[in-house]
Design a protein that fits this description.
This protein is mainly alpha-helical. Strand 3 and strand 4 form a beta hairpin. One of its GO terms (molecular function) is catalytic activity.
């Protein structure tokens, strides 16, 4: 018996789509986050972040796919990719690599910078000779824009590309976390002298250029070993956890910092609850619009699950999985690069 016979047509279809469809860059998260973030300059940073993500949850578009059994996506499409514009890891990539002329200008500036440094070191001709011997460098993007690449292509709607390049990215220039850390590292003297000159002069094969502190430490390092406390969220439900935070806020002995942290936690939880409620509303829309009886019955069960969890403790295994997925998707939308593991699912979902 072949492995393919053990997998349903739906799973085969989903797997095929994940492998063959081109991901779509969505600007919704970046747009709504930016709208709110720059309104609250006088607020503590934790409050600004919580309010900004709440604004995203209040306005984002939810997607329901015909093959879904568990509801919830980051964006408005099946393979939608959100932009964590405030962190800034991919801001230069988007700024430079969505248009061919932008890539060309980026590469020219990069090579001129390198050539000037090599001239000063009297190493230009040696470097040219070595490049001829080694051949094309790995991970070299050339001057091909994202949507035309053979490896890891991404597409973006023309109107959204214009908003991203003309409005959103300029607002964050010099203000993203990457920008701030790069500036502080340069001022700290951690990397200095010839090493600093060398790192600045390195030619860029692609736009994702970040300062390395060591072989395992750089300011764009992604994490995949973060495990949320799914067990508490699932077994108690978000309404219960939110009530607990509200009760703690009533403590008159709280100092300003502790109160600010609790307020930001409350806002963050309200945001995830809004995300879950609007997801249920979108599933209901799909249910009411569906004419196929089989699919309608599936959507009915999905709707019942989404109306109960993650607000309240689940009553079935199906609801427990939906609860965990809703929470995971909402939190990952706030931190798209730091992917969160489920941990011990066998224990969390045990009846």
């Amino acid at each position: 018996m072949g492995i393919s016979t053990l997998v349903s047509e739906r799973i085969e279809r989903l797997r095929e789509r994940y492998q063959t469809e081109m991901p779509i860059i969505s600007i919704e998260r970046a747009k709504f986050y930016t709208e709110k973030y720059f309104e609250g300059n006088s607020l503590p940073q934790n409050m600004r972040v919580a309010l900004s993500m709440k604004h995203v949850y209040e306005n984002m578009t939810h997607y329901v796919d015909p093959d879904d059994r568990i509801a919830g996506y980051w964006c408005e499409s099946f393979l939608g990719i959100p932009i964590e514009i405030e962190r800034g890891i991919f801001n230069n990539v988007l700024r430079n690599e969505l248009k061919k002329r932008n890539i060309l200008w980026f590469r020219i500036k990069s090579y001129l910078k390198t050539a000037w440094w090599l001239l000063k070191k009297r190493q230009l001709f040696t470097a040219i000779r070595n490049m001829r011997n080694t051949g094309k460098q790995p991970m070299n993007m050339g001057i091909t824009p994202m949507d035309k690449r053979k490896i890891n292509p991404y597409k973006i709607a023309k109107a959204e590309k214009k908003i991203l390049l003309k409005k959103l990215l300029p607002q964050w220039k010099g203000k993203s976390i990457v920008n701030i850390i790069e500036k502080e590292i340069a001022e700290s003297g951690l990397v200095s002298g010839n090493m600093l000159d060398f790192s600045i002069a390195l030619p860029a094969n692609n736009s994702k250029q970040v300062l390395l502190i060591s072989m395992t430490s750089n300011i764009a390092f992604s994490q995949g070993h973060v495990i949320l406390d799914y067990e508490k969220a699932i077994t108690r439900g978000l309404f219960s956890l939110k009530t607990e935070v509200e009760e703690k806020l009533e403590d008159k002995s709280l100092n300003l910092d502790d109160k600010s942290v609790l307020q930001s936690i409350k806002i963050a939880m309200e945001g995830v609850i809004i995300f879950a409620k609007r997801l249920a509303e979108r599933v209901q829309e799909a249910y009411e619009a569906e004419s196929d009886e089989t699919r309608k019955n599936i959507l009915k069960i999905m709707l019942e699950n989404c109306q109960k969890v993650p607000f309240y403790p689940p009553e079935t295994f199906y609801q427990a999985v939906q609860s965990a997925w809703t929470i995971k998707t909402a939190v990952e939308l706030a931190h798209p690069i730091n992917l969160h593991s489920f941990g011990r699912m066998d224990q969390i979902f045990y009846p």
